[in-house]
Specification:
With 335 residues, this protein is an alpha/beta fold. The chain has helices at 5-23, 50-65, 78-90, 102-110, 138-152, 168-180, 197-209, 223-232, 260-272, 301-317, 326-334, and strands at 36-40, 69-72, 93-98, 118-122, 131-136, 157-162, 185-190, 214-218, 236-241, 252-258, 279-283, 290-292. The protein contains eleven helices and twelve strands. The longest helix is centred in the N-terminal third of the chain and has 19 residues, at 5-23. It starts with a helix and ends with a helix. Residues 36-322 form the ABC transporter substrate-binding protein PnrA-like domain. It comes from Fictibacillus fluitans. Residues 314-335 are annotated as: Disordered.
């Protein structure tokens, strides 16, 4: 009996192809707007802070949708950002996160040239039919952190090591501290950098020498190094962006946490469903975008309960413990 070897091979490969198609989800295609996702960061995703959280948010999207994700680091100049967008477009990316304020204005400028891509930035002013800027309502988290810092300060002297002058959490921290203790001293030094470790540590040493004993380093690349210095001096710190209690619960009183992964996933879900709004969007405690981290056991339990209660009241009413809204504080700052 003659056997047609070529015919058998063809049948075998057809069977294998069908099996692979079934395993790879060749069933009905998922409906939704989202294709692939891109991320641009100013420095590196390994900063243990803001950019690291952006990268984790990107991976969360991939885990949820099974799509391709791409990212580029050290993206600060307009020409290189535009080049990155061109490359992303070739990779079938239609949702791009620019992980910082610097991307908001540029995205507003170039978004019209890429009508099939949705551009998402953070903490800046956004315009354009396919551009969105997400704002963390960070004044409130700074306010509650300031209350904790003032409560725990033995010298009535706090130090804020800020990355940028515009950070709302910096002003909120001072407001909360002075609400807790009217006579407290709040020193602030602005680095004009998210990652200058040497400058931030030098600021810490100056403030510590002047008597500050609780520090709030609000940067990306320098927060952890500063907290390590605080620990060596047996002083206190407030963590930033992530829950940094693992750096030492006798050092980190609490942390102001920005749930970046949650916000990324939320933005992707809205975009996929065709519901992501353009313009400037506000995310805060109520939207689960911001939270306070674990408290140090050194913070009195009664005070911990008070802060938690104050946060719940703020979520319901929009009023901070001093009876004012964030909008009222913003008007005072302008005046």
């Amino acid at each position: 009996m003659e056997v047609n070897v070529n015919k058998m091979k063809t049948v075998r490969w057809l069977l294998i192809a069908c099996l692979l198609a079934a395993l790879s989800g060749c069933q009905e295609k998922r409906e939704g707007n989202l294709k692939n996702t891109g991320l641009l960061v100013q420095d590196t995703i390994n900063d243990q802070g803001w950019a690291d959280q952006g990268y984790k948010g990107l991976i969360k999207i991939q885990d949820t949708y099974g799509n391709e994700v791409v990212y580029k680091e050290k993206m600060q100049m307009k020409a290189e950002i535009k080049q990155a967008v061109e490359e992303f477009q070739k990779d079938n990316v239609n949702l791009i996160f620019g992980h910082g304020k610097i991307y908001a204005n540029l995205f507003s400028q170039i978004s019209r040239d890429y009508p099939k891509i949705r551009f998402v930035s953070f903490n800046g002013d956004s315009s354009g039919e396919n551009a969105t800027s997400i704002h963390f309502r960070s004044y409130a988290m700074g306010f509650f952190a300031g209350m904790v810092a003032a409560k725990m300060s033995r010298t009535n002297h706090l130090g804020v090591i800020a990355a940028q002058e515009w950070q709302p959490e910096m002003k909120g921290f001072a407001g909360g501290a002075r609400f807790q203790k009217k006579d407290i001293i709040v020193d602030t030094e602005v680095m004009d950098s998210w990652s200058d470790k040497d400058q931030a540590i030098a600021s810490f040493k100056r403030m510590a020498a002047a008597g500050a004993d609780v520090f709030y380093p609000t940067g990306d690349g320098y927060t952890v190094p500063v907290i390590e210095e605080v620990k060596r001096k047996a002083l206190y710190a407030i963590g930033y962006v992530t829950d940094q209690s693992d750096l030492g619960r006798a050092t980190v009183l609490t942390s102001t946490v920005q749930n970046v992964e949650y916000v990324y996933k939320s933005a992707a879900e809205q975009f996929d469903a065709g519901k992501l709004r353009t313009g400037n969007l506000q995310y805060g405690f109520k939207e689960k975008a911001i939270a306070m981290g674990r408290f140090s056991p050194l913070v009195p339990s009664g005070f911990q309960k008070k802060i938690r209660k104050d946060i719940e009241e703020y979520k319901k009413t929009g009023k901070l413990p001093n009876g004012k809204s964030i909008q009222e504080h913003a008007q005072e700052d302008v005046q």
